[in-house]
Design brief:
This protein has two helices and two strands; from the N terminus they run ααββ. By secondary structure, it is an alpha+beta fold. The radius of gyration is 14 Å and the shape is elongated.
Length: about 55
């Protein structure tokens, strides 16, 4: 792997309580950073909460 690509990488963690928007935030960061082309939708449905991409 190219040294410049490795040097440009950044690692961070998103930590919070459940239902705080971690998945939404992560997808938006990836979308605006150009790593993905389409972000999914996260919806809460009563007790059956699921993230969908």
């Amino acid at each position: 792997m190219n040294e410049d690509i490795i040097k440009n990488r950044r690692t961070f963690a998103i930590i919070s309580h459940p239902d705080a928007g971690k998945t939404t935030l992560t997808e938006k960061l990836l979308l605006f950073g150009g790593a993905i082309q389409l972000a999914g939708m996260v919806k809460a449905k009563g007790e059956r909460r699921r993230a969908r991409s």
